[in-house]
Design brief:
The chain has 344 residues and is an alpha/beta fold. The chain has one domain: TIM Barrel (Alpha-Beta Barrel). 44% of the residues lie in helices and 14% in strands. The protein is built from 16 helices and 12 strands. Strands 4-5-6-7-8-9-10-11 form an 8-stranded parallel beta barrel, surrounded by 5 helices. Helix 9 links the parallel strand 8 and strand 9. Helix 2 packs parallel to helix 15. The longest helix has 22 residues. The protein is globular and about 60 Å long. The N and C termini lie far apart (50 Å).
Length: 344
């Protein structure tokens, strides 16, 4: 099983770089623009992009979303991401810790993140299939303690699992399991999708069982159904061809935000491809943005400084957008739809 997981992680790192496997539909941020404010009545030096997340201050509301862990390549990959998160003051989500729970040798590829980012917000991550069937809460809690994680992400990925050659499709009882973990796990629980999005109905159900932080992870970026479809062998041709029908299955991120009304803390990931997408997501109501795929190739290169520079472009774009829209703080930007105009 360990070798199977390792190969899957390697496949994911390689295939996620293939833009042909991304959604062809947009996340929807291109349908919004900021209204320019020629009289902002603030100084550029007044702009404050800081925010609070899980009780800790970030320099700006960005999450490097979960990508990898558990294989040899992931050690340096996560080290670079963590170093960059520490340098620029954003949060970091790690890939699924399942590999570390099942193989002692995989632990370092995750624990290196805390070594490189001693003060950053770091999120552990585990699939709902694992909390339903495989791993005890105590075991997960012990690893999170070793990592000094600030929260645990439970990711939902039913169709990814359905098309995955080794997938686990036992999702019955998922909501009750989430409720149990929210009530009993020692760290805050974040629930996210992996790229097909959390619909308004699912978000409401999660709120009903006490989930206070969600990552909507909508359609528009990497499509993990297509990635798993690419992994299927030719003797699985029926399933492989079926995967093609789901190339654009999901809820676009900006559309979810446009229609969402909740008092939960909302992370908007999935299809944020340009730095200007971050302030748009915040203006539409998200508390934080998340990016992954656009950082992947940079993170696989041995240049943490370039990775930090790329993240700083997102921070500077946020700062300049706030100045151009006439808002001084992140709180003034979040959910302020009067700053935005929808493009027909």
């Amino acid at each position: 099983m360990t070798r199977v997981i390792e190969q899957r992680k390697r496949d994911h790192l390689n295939l996620a770089q293939n833009e042909a496997l991304n959604f062809s539909i947009s996340a929807g941020f291109n349908r919004w623009r900021f209204i320019h404010n020629a009289l902002p009545e603030i100084n550029l030096s007044d702009i404050d992009t800081r925010c609070t997340f899980l009780g800790k201050e970030l320099k700006f509301p960005l999450l490097i979303s979960s990508m990898s862990g558990g294989v040899q390549e992931s050690y340096h990959f996560n080290a670079r991401l963590a170093s960059a998160a520490e340098a620029v003051g954003c949060a970091l989500g790690l890939g699924s810790i399942r590999a570390a729970l099942e193989n002692e040798e995989a632990r370092d590829s995750f624990l290196v993140a805390r070594e490189q980012a001693p003060t950053a917000v770091i999120l552990a991550n585990l699939g709902i299939a694992q909390i339903l069937t495989a791993h005890s809460m105590d075991r997960v809690a012990r690893f999170c303690e070793d990592l000094s994680a600030n929260a645990l992400i439970i990711h939902l990925n039913p169709l990814q699992e359905a098309f995955q050659p080794e997938g686990d499709t036992k999702f019955a009882g998922g909501l009750a399991a989430i409720q149990k973990w929210v009530q009993e796990f020692p760290l805050p629980i974040i629930v996210k999708e992996v790229g097909q999005g959390l619909s308004l109905a699912v978000i409401s159900r999660l709120q009903g069982v006490g989930v206070e932080i969600i990552d909507i992870a909508g359609a528009g970026g990497s499509n993990w159904i297509s990635i798993e479809g690419a992994r299927l062998s030719e003797d699985q041709s029926v399933l492989k061809k079926t995967a093609q029908e789901f190339a654009n299955w999901g809820e676009p991120t900006a559309e979810i935000l446009e229609n969402l009304s909740t008092n939960q803390f909302v992370i908007a990931s999935g299809g944020l491809k340009r730095p200007l997408d971050l302030p748009k997501a915040l203006g539409l109501g998200a508390n934080m943005g998340g990016i992954a795929g656009i950082l992947l190739k940079q993170a696989l290169k041995d240049d943490a400084d370039k990775l930090s520079e790329a993240l700083l472009v997102w921070k500077k774009t946020l700062e300049m957008t706030m100045f151009g829209a006439g808002v001084r703080t992140i709180d003034e930007l979040i959910g302020n739809r009067q700053l935005l105009q929808k493009i027909d």
